[in-house]
Amino acid sequence: MLDDLELKVFYNTLFSRRDVRSQFSGEEMDKKVLGRILLAAHSAPSVGMSQPWDFVLVTDPDIRSRFKDHVYKEREAYEASLEQDRAENFKRIKIEGIMESSLGVVVTYDPHRGAPSVLGRHAIDDAGLYSVCLAIENLWLAATAEGIGVGWVSFYREEFLGELLGIPKHVRPIAWLCVGPVTHFEKVPDLERFSWQSRRPIEPFLRHNRYESQSDLDQVVYLPKDGFDL
Amino acid sequence: MLDDLELKVFYNTLFSRRDVRSQFSGEEMDKKVLGRILLAAHSAPSVGMSQPWDFVLVTDPDIRSRFKDHVYKEREAYEASLEQDRAENFKRIKIEGIMESSLGVVVTYDPHRGAPSVLGRHAIDDAGLYSVCLAIENLWLAATAEGIGVGWVSFYREEFLGELLGIPKHVRPIAWLCVGPVTHFEKVPDLERFSWQSRRPIEPFLRHNRYESQSDLDQVVYLPKDGFDL
Predict the structure, then answer these.
(1) Where is the Nitroreductase domain (chains A, B) (predicted)?
(2) B148 with B16: CB under 8 angstroms?
């Protein structure tokens, strides 16, 4: 359990984490820092301790360039699906830093690891997938603590990325993370800065005992109204 | 970016996180602490800033008891699927702290939030599901920083939990988290203490440019060999 000062440092790190697109400096990653954030990812909880993740570190410019071309095609497909004013807004939003970041970290899910009979997966098979996401968030927060930016790119087809990196058919790519030093972290998320979507308050998403019930939540949980008081 | 001392506190928190089953004290949760860890969850990254999660705080003993009965039936079903020596080992392992923890936090996924045309979900629909998991890891780490234990129960059928809490059909329960003060955090994960599965070293899971290639990784990443040096 941390003391109040340490807690503030911890929460400040958590709240300052951003999904970085535009602020990568392109400097080379410090190898020790990269090692630490990968160990943070690898220390995530996993169902039945299956640790079903792998991390493909992509530095090759040609692979990154081919991935970026693919992402731009998917970007166009998405843009074409939007109504006009939404599409105009979307044009202003940068969705990736594939070439500008120091490297890509592709995180994959191998459902065979620890199988068969992974403890905790017999009723919920997706629990393995969930574990990989927990590892990604560990990586993201550790990177933030180190002053390193992370941007999750999800404008791609899994089949394309799988073939690009020679990923076996049974293994699923879950994320392409753009990773590297940044000039700064923005205070406000990009999608909010560009008026795409604002962060919602938490209150409507808290419920008590039953999904439809919020009646006596103030007896159960206290939400700081002005800033984040400890 | 944190200084070296702050980084140690951050990483120590991340590495001391455990999946808690047996160490819940049953004390009531401090309402402010609960508020903080829920805000940490709600501050997770989400695809297209959809924030597709909800948090059902379950304190009702009857609901918890019915959930526990269901979990024990699923436990038996899993045990029956194991070979004899594995089943004998499994009998020793506690898989939940539903009644002993201070409350359950059921985290759900609502794919309708922000839909249609959630930015980043057109090619990978599961990205919304991934966001919910990132929120869960934020909650878990914040709880650890606060000295609060979290245990993810996954021995249940989603349909059962959905009906138990009156969750709408289109919303998916992702986790039942047992949450509350603990007597202590174990140094070694339960599944390792009970010889079910040991943590694997990270090296085989690091790859470079292509999934099959680990050839020149030491030029890209440095993994501390003895402890976690900064």
Answers:
(1) 16-180
(2) no
Say whether pLDDT at B230 is over 80.
Answer: no
| CB environment A28-52: b (16+ within 10 A), e (fewer) | ebeeebbbbbbbbbbbbbbbbbbbb
- Please tell me the predicted confidence (pLDDT) of residue A134: 98
Q: Pick from B143, B10, B39, B36: which is nearest to A13 by CA?
A: B10
- Domain of A55, CATH number, reads 3.40.109.10
| β A103-109/A172-181 pair status | antiparallel
Is B108 close to A157, i.e. CB distance below 8 A?
no
If contacts are CB pairs under 8 Å, which of residues 86-125 in chain A contact chain B? 86, 90, 93, 95, 103, 108, 114, 117, 119-124
**Is residue B182 less than 8 Å (CB to CB) from chain A?**
no
Domain that holds residue B62: 18-86+93-219
* Interface check A165 vs B, CB under 8 A: yes
pTM over 0.95: yes
For residue A161, give how far its alpha carbon lies from the nearest alpha carbon of chain B (Å).
Answer: 11
Give B123-171 pLDDT, tens digit per residue: 999 999 999 999 999 999 999 999 999 999 999 999 999 999 999 999 9
Domain count, chain B: 1
Does residue B2 lie in a domain region?
A: no
B128 Cα to chain A: minimum distance (Å): 11
